[in-house]
Amino acid sequence: MKKNQSLLSNQPAFLFFLGLVALSFTAYGRLLLHPDLHTACPENDTWNLPVRWSVLTALQAGRIPLWNPLSAFGLPWLASWSTEVFYPGTWLFTQFGLNAWNYSGIIHLLIFSAGIYFFLIQLGAQPFAAFFSASLALLNGCAYNHLGSNSPMDAMAWIPWIFIGARETLTDNNGGRFKLGLALALQILAGYPQTLLYTLIGLFLYTAICFRSIEKLIFPMALALLVTAGQWLPSVEYFLFQAVRLPAVTNNPDFVLPLSNLLTFLRPDALAQKGLPDYVVSPTYFYFNLYTGLIPLAIFFLSLFRFKEWTILTRFWVSGLLASCLWTFGFFTYCLHFLHIIPPAFLEPAKAWVLLNFVELITLGLLWENLYPKAGHWKWVLLLLALLDLLIPIWSHPLERNLLPPCVQIDQTSQIIKNSLNSGRLLVLVDEKESGQLYQPLPDPELKPRFKYFVPNSNLYASLPLANAYSSTWPSWSVMDTAIYFKYGFPYSQGHLLDLLGVDAILLNESKMPKPFLKAGTLQSWTLWKNPHSLGRAFIYKGDISSGDRKEIFKTFASGQSNPATKLYLEKEPASLKPNHSLADQANPENHYLIPKNKSGYLVITQNAMPGWRVWVNGNPQDLFLADSLFQCVPVEGGQAVDLRYEPASFKLGLFVSLLTFAGLIFTAVTFLLKRPEPSLA
Questions:
Q1: Are strands 592-594 and 641-646 parallel, antiparallel or unpaired?
Q2: CA-CA distance, 608 to 416, in Å (whole number)?
Q3: Degrees to nearest 5, angle at CA 445 with 443 and 450
């Protein structure tokens, strides 16, 4: 009899998992059966796939990717979010490469959905209501438009588990502290800072209002921060002290969700224009659409008529949903501007969509109990209609096979570009109109691979150095600020700015360019122009040195008043102090330079001179200076060997703290197990 009762008590959870797995195959069967396909969207091609490929390639070679030399004169790769270098999921799928791309995204959707289900059960919802919300979590708008964005998806997956761990911790359930610490650590390692920020804000409000206590959460959360210090400490150093945050969308500087996105409740293609789909026309739709269907929306509004029957818990989540909506759509931002208060650029209200998505699903599960506590079999019909409403856009969403190596077309095209380069870099210029051409025509119905020459960061596949980055956070002294580029007539200037930047070639949609540019070839409608005066990857300067601010330096080179071969602006104070140890072995060949015997002066390397770079001359440590407000520079003499390494102190300190904390946790666990009293035989 007890066995039967146990089986019956576990039946809802068993049916939940069975239904969730069946729904996953129904919705994403195409991606599961064909792992070489992925959802068609510009960000996958321009950022997600290249970033994932570059990180997996580094890990497969046994390297921790601290630095990306190929994009934007060098970027701190570990510190950049979306790389997920230490995230367990990254290491798990390392050997499978991009073939595990779809499986990783769907597994994290299942983790998110399961968390929604069990958290609602803890809050007192019935199994059907919990399953209703969990099913929508698996099929929400983020799922089919954002599936390939690993970092946001992976960080979102652990939100409900953080709340589960916090609730169990505050109610003194066994294992609550462990669940909270583990889920928070995994979300931190997933690397998306806005998701972490909004999760912690929501968690603080939930525990402070519903439990009136947060003290018990401090210890497991502190441990999670210590264990993950190797990941987040370099990010804090870079984003808070070494970078400038620019508006993610030019005409939307606060990055709020446009009210026009509400039209996606009615149909998923409500924002499409001139034959182009929403995910090309509207970046904010692609990243943060709210398409969850009309049926959940109807349930919410019908529940308003039973407001008096809501529990205190339900009222909290409904209030949280309304506040999240107002924040995401910019209501509070407008209020701050009215009071002449500028919100930090890091907040980006539109990125609160992850928390909004979670709060909306929890609210829906609780409202169902208030609206129809004794619903009959027709509730399954309602669930089926709600799921079909979301499955239709998922089934109709185009798939593509772009930029998945190995690809003969990519190799041939990249070789053409490489043959046209000297030792510097390629500059790819793309504007909004040209971005739209990515999907005009729409993805090939035969799903043939296509190399999109002009997409930023696609260079990572072909190992082509590129002069611009797909990001809105720029190193504070780099030339990635495009406003400065174009302010001085860039790239059409007849001055020497491109020579300084080491830009050997420009790929853009222009059939004519001024001197000294030389036409090197045509790729479809794009023309490759060669810059014969480029100084390349590195050059030796001999002469007097000057000083000046960044604007003056750019202006003088862009106008032609100065030539970087005959003019050097050098900061008096080093950008990085000399390391405290000699170089025992040779650094990476890409960062090794032999100075000709007949040349002395200053070696200028056209790579960002960010703190963390260290330089040795003949194995002896030297100071590294900032040249022309941008690049690495070190005094040299003929016949010397120069080696550089990127060794940020924040990474060393963070890794030490992480390993020390992890070792302490293992020691404590082993000690506890050894001291446990043996069970009595009496």
A1: antiparallel
A2: 27
A3: 45
HEC-encoded secondary structure of 470-534: CCCEEECCCCCCHHHHHHCCCCCCCCCHHHHCCEEEEEECCCCCCCCCEEEEEECCEEEEECCCC
C-alpha distances (whole Å) from 139 to each of 99, 132, 387, 596 are 22, 11, 8, 62
The encoded tokens of residue 30 equal 């195409």
pLDDT 10s digits, 304-339: 888 888 888 999 999 999 999 999 888 998 888 888
Q: Tell me the three state secondary structure of residue 75.
A: strand
Cβ atoms of 187 and 226 within 8 Å: the answer is no
Bond from prior residue into 677 cis (ω within 30 degrees of 0)? no
Tell how strand 620-622 and strand 613-617 pair up.
antiparallel
Per-residue pLDDT band for 5 (boundaries 50, 70, 90) equals very low
Q: Cα separation of 480 and 246, whole Å?
A: 11
Integer Cα distance of 421 and 503 in angstroms: 9
Give 440-463 pLDDT, tens digit per residue: 555 556 655 444 444 555 566 667
- For residue 301, CA distances in Å to 12, 297, 306 come to 28, 6, 10
Task: Give the whole-angstrom CA distance, residue 58 versus residue 97.
Answer: 11
What type of residue is 294?
A: L
pLDDT at residue 245 greater than cutoff 80: no
User: CA 301, CA 15: separation in Å to the nearest integer?
Assistant: 29
Contact predicate 470/42, CB 8 Å: no
Closest CA to 329 of 249, 247, 272, 262: 262
Residue 262 near residue 353, CB atoms below 8 Å: no
Query: Measuring CA to CA, which residue among 266, 260, 265 is closest to residue 281?
Result: 260
Q: How many angstroms separate the CA atoms of 186 and 199, rounded?
A: 13
Residue 291 is predicted with a pLDDT of 65
User: In angstroms, rounded to a whole number, what is the distance separating the alpha carbons of residues 178 and 165?
Assistant: 7
The three-state (H, E, C) secondary structure of 564-627, written as one string = CCCCEEECCCCCECCCCCCCCCCCCHHHEEECCCCCCEEEEEEEECCECEEEEECCEEECEEEE
With 0-12 / 13-18 / 19 or more C-beta atoms within 10 angstroms meaning exposed / middle / buried, residue 304 is exposed
Which runs of consecutive H residues, i.e. helices, occur in 290-407? 294-303, 312-328, 331-338, 353-371, 378-396
* End-to-end Cα, the chain, rounded Å: 29
The secondary element (H helix, E strand) that includes residue 667 is helix 649-675
Give the confidence band of 8 by pLDDT, cuts at 50, 70, 90.
Answer: very low
Q: Is 327 left (phi over 0), alpha (psi -120 to 50) or beta?
A: alpha
Residue 45 · residue 452 · CB < 8 Å: yes
Q: Measured between alpha carbons, how far is 388 from 436 in angstroms, rounded to an integer? A: 30
Helix (H) or strand (E) holding 57: helix 49-60
- Mean pLDDT over 18-23 rounds to 91
Instruction: Annotate 626-640 with b (16+ C-beta within 10 A) or e (fewer).
Output: bbbbbbbbbebeeeb
How many Cα atoms occupy the beta-carbon half-sphere of 626 within 13 Å?
22
Are the CB atoms for 31 and 98 separated by under 8 Å?
A: no
Distance CA 436, CA 440 (A): 7
H/E run at residue 257: none
> What tokens does 649 get?
């102190």
Greatest distance between any 2 Cα atoms in the chain: 96
Q: Report the C-alpha gap between 197 and 455 in whole angstroms.
A: 30
4/450 Cα distance (integer angstroms): 57
What's the pTM?
0.89
